[in-house]
Amino acid sequence: MSSRPLHQPEDPNSPADDSDSDLDLDIQELDPITTSSPASREGYQDRYTRDERRSAHIPLRNLRMGGLRGPGNRNRGYGDLGRRRDTESEDLRGLLADEHDGRSSRDDEARSRSAQDDAPLLSSRDRKRRPSMDAAISSMSRLSSRVRLPSFLSSSSASIALPADNESKEEEHDPASSRTVSIGMPQATRFPPNAVSNAKYTPFSFLPRTLYNEFSFFFNMYFLLVALSQAIPALRIGYLSTYIVPLAGVLAITLGKEAYDDIDRRRRDSEANSEGYTVLVFDRMGMGDVDRYRAKRKLKSMTKSKSKRNSLVQPDRLSDIQEEENSLGGTGLRASPTSSVREVTKKARDLKVGDVLKLNKDQRLPADVVILKSYTNETTSDQDIPSEHEDEELLLDTVSDSPLDKSNEPADDERESTSKASNTPSADATGVGETFIRTDQLDGETDWKLRLGSPLTQQLEPAEFTRLRIVAGKPDKKVNEFLGTVELLPKRGGYDTDVPKPDPVGEAPDGSSENESAPLTIDNTAWANTILASNATTLAAVIYTGPQTRSALSTSASRSKTGLLEYEINSLTKILCALTLTLSIVLVALEGFEHVAGVAWYVKIMRFLVLFSTIVPISLRVNLDMGKTVYSSFIQKDHGIEGAVVRTSTIPEELGRIEYLLSDKTGTLTQNEMEMKKIHVGTVSYANEAMDEVASYIKQGFSVSAPTDASQPSVLITPSSTFAVSTTSTATRTRREIGSRVRDVVLALGICHNVTPTMEEENGETITSYQASSPDEIAIVKWTEAVGLRLIHRDRKGMLLESVETGRPAVRVRILEVFPFTSEGKRMGIIVQFLDGTETSPVPNIDAGEIWFFQKGADTVMTSIVASNDWLDEETANMAREGLRTLVVGRKKMPVAQYKEFASQYREASVSLNNRDTGMANVVAHYLEKDLELLGVTGVEDKLQKDVKPSLELLRNAGIKIWMLTGDKVETARCVAVSAKLVARGQYIHTIAKLKRKDEAQDHLDFLRSKTDSCLLIDGESLSFFLTHFRNDFISMAVKLPTVVACRCSPTQKADVALLIREYTKKRICCIGDGGNDVSMIQAADVGVGIVGKEGRQASLAADFSITQFCHLTKLLVWHGRNSYKRSAKLAQFVIHRGLIISVCQTMYSIAIKFEPEGLYKDWLLVGYATVYTMAPVFSLVLDRDVDEKLANLYPELYKELTTGDSLSYKTFFIWVLVSIYQGGIIQGCSQLLTEVDGPRMVAVSFTVLVLNELIMVAFEITTWHPIMIFSLVGTLLVYVGSIPFLGGYFDLKFMLTPGFFWRVAAIGAISLIPPYLFKLARRAYKPPSYRKVQGI
């Protein structure tokens, strides 16, 4: 055997050089030399030079077969290869001759590659030339005992990881820069974790933020200062705990509620973050795995005499090459996979950038991903375990469609490329790499979106995913934009069987492999919180996680919400504090600033401020916070709104102050389920029960009898088939005509769509489901099945429909062309060739069947396309008034010659470089869209949520202005606004769309100012234009309109609208939604309500209140909101009255004792008065109600009154101040006059009357008695009477047992209570409140 090196560049023309040695396997090719060896650079260079001579050989088989694997040569067989060898041999010899010149470039490439490899340097021992692949494997086995083999050939598998030094240098990724993601491997930079968080606080920020929020209120700051003043001996009055304990209690309750709410949010977030997902983990291949790729037999040429190797004539080894290629799919040596794949389950929060997810139907995406590969579940086994002949097919087979007419019809792959160019799904929705996603939780759109795997990754085996690198842009909130690239790194050693190779002529002269790359667009992505809708398995790589996902970036940070009632009470507190300061200064001034007895005048003022601190009662916050807890409990325990959850328990009163309701559409007002409700065929309209008649027509029209001869095919129905009428019926000519029209329109609806049927297993039963980008189309196809014509198969080439009655195929068509629906065109069309079942040749024939063009679309565009008629406009208007989404259906028969002419022109336009889309549209308009036969009009309803119509009507009557903000299309939003009765019957809808000019915007504003009773329908683009150029003018006009519908709104725009209304009107805003795209709007509102949606709970988790249905909102607002606000308003005013009256008593006492700052009620009396002696009766007011629930719903106008804030206003506040001054003055003044100025008798009479006065005043204020109220009043009175024997230190107990005590108490109490009560009765008689009016009806 020759010891000559494998390749000598000096002798490129040597016959021996073109031998089977090009099939040899060199271990250096499989694992390049690395820099991990401790050898010096000089030794490395020498060794590399020697190794290069031995290992730089180019496998010629790769070069030869590269042409076969190239996309342009897939149809060539081996005969073609042989014919081209003469022309290519010269190029190949030149390519080899140039190899020597390219040595330095290979040297550089080897160094760069070795820097990324962790394999050790291999021995530089000279090796003999190995004549066969068996020799290669055996030599490798012998080498394993003498050298350390590369890691991928070691006997154990280890997870791929970056070197330790890279890990130690891992840096935080800059979110403002683009990112390079290594698939299935650790990343060089650190990305944020994939955790969702709706929490408001962290463990470190909780105390600072909550304390800041609390003491930002003047109310709490005032009491803090009062409490701190008691640390100064000169200012101390009574027990220190009297002032410290209440403040600490208030803070503890408030902070406890905030902590509980936030812990609850974290618990819910933890549930979402703990959802399990299947992740592919990649391990390197071990030595044992290589055995599977060992060659089982030698090639024929290897068995020939070795003397032939020295022959100057090189034999044709084409048979060897073919034999070797055949062996790849069988027992021969195949290229070893880069890694082995196993599946693990990871929690959503543990997912990292670069992870490969395995997703199935109806799974929510936990992060932003790029789709790598997708395949239907029916072929899962084939995808998971590569076919033995997969590589062979990849090299040799060409899947192509037979053209209908090679001269006049575009090839199928050309049609497919045209379809891809327009970014529309092919007819075969289950095609390779296609999957549908639902994005209503992200952008509010109801249409499903088609997503595709990149062709570069779709054909790649999962084991090769570790060779992928994805370059993606910086995190962005734009959900409809994405630019990136995917790069496939060359396989180490050997050739790549997964990706077609370029032609050898185009390969680099030095034989190095080029990285393959492909662009990535929005069509290759799926964002977090979208749902996989296809019955397919999708492999996707995580690109953005956690706070960097599109969904999170479109969501504003959660904020602490404070109710309007809090601000109003804060304002009243400032008034009371000013009153306290004024009173203190006046009392000191009356005594005189000069008249001091060892005490400075300013110290007296401070002591008076402390004494009068009860004017601003600390118990007010305690009572209000406890009241909020009670209201929240009422909401959650209400069986009428089962499933309601209060997530922010600090703002239930806000539910009673709402003036603007901003609602999402999809999933909130609608169920996102379409239903075919009506069809009109020109003379007759069918709906509801009349659909049974349609079914009878279809039963007759598509009844296909079984052939008598089993060898004969069934006769299929075409549009030209005669309508069969039952012989038993008395069929008139009119009935036959109607039946024929019904059959034609149902046939058109069954064919003109982009729907694909899929089979699914549910509970052991096979169920047919449909998938398409538009739910409208699915609704129509389901309706055709319900009336008797079922779609059972569809692919890129054709469709098959069967009769539901007979279960036999009724219609078979070949798809010639599809014109998908676009937002601009508002129509979709299809050209099909009907097959009647008599075809004898399996080869498609353009002349063997009728060709028809079907089209359906919006009435606005179809009116000019269909033939003239006298009923279309009227019927579409009638359906639109009912809120139905109308589609006009037409058809046209095409002669074969006309179709061929159209196909030629259309193909020519589709390859034009200039104005391609316009040219294609012009061809379609010229040949197809003229004088279509009008078949009928369909009406599809977007099914509303339960009781949406009466709920919206009730809310409007309650004075709430309703805005609908949706990401869906203009037409869809308009239909839902009408069907949901957002727009009253006959109300004008002013539509503004695609606005770009300021003069047009001004005209719209002027018109709307003159017509303030109209509904405004505006798209997101126009809304953004108005907010940029006419911000104040637009919002001042829009808030006056009864209804505004904004469509095509981004999540950020929704939040901006909510903030704008809040800032401009200063009114309370409620936002309600169910999707992740509504979270920003919900958090921007004063009150955010989330609906637990079918697809996710993002809105529910981020909201202040969570409900399960939209109709529950009416009870939440009109009943619970109204009660909460009125109760809190009454409670707040009564607590202020309770504190103010005791301060007035203190003032009277201070005046009587010559303006000395001495306390009237000290220590326990002061604490007991605010707690055990009055708290329970006063707090029982949270159970009061003025009307029952039935009346509240019957008269929603009662809710409208609350928006004015009359229940707690300056007017009602000062009325209570006057009552307090009167009662306090009478109680203290009469007590001093009838007993003594200072002493235990006066204190006993005064305090007893004070307690009884409060209990009776509570009874006066109660509208509807509750058993707890009676118990608290009677119980408190008994507690006070029972505690009197223990109050000897404050009272004259002997005096309290005499009749004189009782008549004094009775007299003072009567003078104190009767006048205010008479005033209340007179006021009620003169101007009765609204609730008294409705109670009297």
UniProtKB/TrEMBL annotation:
| PROSITE patterns membership | ATPASE_E1_E2
Organism, scientific name: Glarea lozoyensis (strain ATCC 20868 / MF5171)
Acidic residues bias locations? 17-29
Q: Which residues form the P-type ATPase C-terminal domain?
A: 1101-1328
Q: Which UniProt keywords apply?
A: ATP-binding, Lipid transport, Magnesium, Membrane, Metal-binding, Nucleotide-binding, Translocase, Transmembrane, Transmembrane helix, Transport
Name where it's found: Endosome membrane; Membrane
Question: Could you confirm whether the keyword Translocase appears in this record?
Answer: yes
* Cofactor needs: Mg(2+)
Membrane topology per the entry is: Multi-pass membrane protein
**The protein's name:** Phospholipid-transporting ATPase
